[in-house]
Amino acid sequence: MTDLLSLIWNYGVPFAAILTVVVFVHEFGHYWVARRCGVRVETFSIGFGPELFHRMDKHGTRWRVALFPIGGYVKFFGDADPASMPDAKAGASMSADQRGQAFFAKPLGQKSAIVAAGPVVNYIFAFVVLVGLFMAYGRPFTPPMVGGLVEGGAAQQAGLLKGDRILSVDGYAIERFEDIQRQILLANGQPVRLRYAREGNETEITVTPIRSAAPAALAEPGKTDQKTPDEQAAAARPRLGVISPTLEFRKLGGMESISAAGQEVVELTWTTLRTLGQAISGARDAKEVLGGPLRIAQMSGETARMGLANVLWFVALLSLNLGLLNLFPIPLLDGGHLLFYACEKLRGRPLGERVQEAAARIGLGTVLALMLFATWNDIVQLRVFSFLKGLFS
């Protein structure tokens, strides 16, 4: 029981706190723009499932917190459900004043702005958090030096030595050790051209990262870290086998922080899109890319123990990923709604109800399938069954 309480405190509480902040920011973007457009907001929910508590405001909005903090929604007046599907029956009996407050009756431009506001505010929030982080604590910086070598790793086999400075990877100029990690991730196990400096001399070599597994965060209590072959395969990543020097934080000025935050937003977005594209094309195992709530809980707990600066970095990263994910053209997500509105603009009229209903079912199935796959992937990689067995045996 002590181990279970410790698990909840160390992982569950940070997970709920961090995800609540990011989801609130996303939904508040929808809410704020909707209010500016004269739409009545009936419900603002953080989480799904049974309601824990709520508060009604003077505008008639029910602000609620639900049991499962894995998302949220804003329900507008005239919507049939939280996915903003129009309630045709209710719309037919509305007065002119009521239709003026309904989301579905607003002009196409206003509806598009309301839907896009969630992801856009996620990006703005991430940018602001990064600017504040870089000014208050500094930008995470690790010199691109070889601080050590993994025994038998790709770098050691290629002849790299401790103290070598990495200059470029596949022609990409390296300024920080984090740049090396990003380029190795994008290479996805393929050979890379690596230029390094040693004692004033520059050398270019070709190195092929070796797939290996990092230690799992959850281990069976009282037992050594042992994995099945399937678990080992799931945890394997292409790695250069270079140990980084000590992490530093370099404080930046106002303009420097703004520039650096913008650069991080662009690079993180591009890296995410590249890795997802590799997973879709089959060039990368999807297990390496898709993480579910358990993975987020693991990372939340780890960053919480590492201090406020790391928590802020993770919050910004999670906000970016939530905003980007919601822009994908999948029905039920914000990107799916924007796709419908684009079709409506081109056709001069909305898509038929049957088409929208069929698309909504397909979108729901796609989202549920991705969630199930990501959650199962988390269970396998984090060895949750073994952990739970150790708790209760």
Tell me the layout of helices and strands.
Blueprint lengths: L1 H35 L4 E16 L5 E15 L11 H5 L3 H5 L7 H29 L2 E3 L6 E2 L4 H5 L6 E5 L2 E2 L3 H11 L4 E7 L2 E7 L2 E4 L15 H7 E4 L2 E2 L4 E3 L3 H28 L4 H4 L3 H13 L2 H19 L7 H14 L5 H29 L2 H9 L1
The total of helices stands at 14
Rg, rounded, reads 24 Å
Count the beta strands: 12
Low-pLDDT runs: 215-226, 228-234
What's the main sheet like? 4 strands, antiparallel
Distance between the termini: 11 Å
Proportion of helical residues = 40-55%
> What's the helix-strand series?
HEEHHHEEHEEHEEEHEEEHHHHHHH
Give the strand line-up of the largest sheet.
Answer: 6-5-7-8
State which percent range the strand residues make up. Answer: 15-25%
Mean pLDDT: 82
Primary descriptors:
alpha+beta; four-stranded antiparallel beta sheet; 393 residues
Summarize this, please?
This protein has 393 residues and is α+β, with helices and mostly antiparallel strands. Helix content is 54%, strand content 18%.
Structural notes for this entry:
- By secondary structure, this protein is an alpha+beta fold.
- It has 14 helices and 12 strands.
- The chain has helices spanning 2-36, 88-92, 96-100, 108-136, 154-158, 177-187, 229-235, 254-281, 286-289, 293-305, 308-326, 334-347, 353-381, 384-392; strands spanning 41-56, 62-76, 139-141, 148-149, 165-169, 172-173, 192-198, 201-207, 210-213, 236-239, 242-243, 248-250.
- Strands 6-5-7-8 form a 4-stranded antiparallel beta sheet. A two-stranded antiparallel ribbon has the order 1-2. Strands 3-12 form a two-stranded antiparallel sheet.
- α4 crosses α8 (254-281) and α10 runs antiparallel to α11 (308-326).
- The chain is elongated, with a radius of gyration of 24 Å.
- The chain starts with a helix and ends with a helix.
- Residues 215-226 and 228-234 have low confidence and may be disordered.
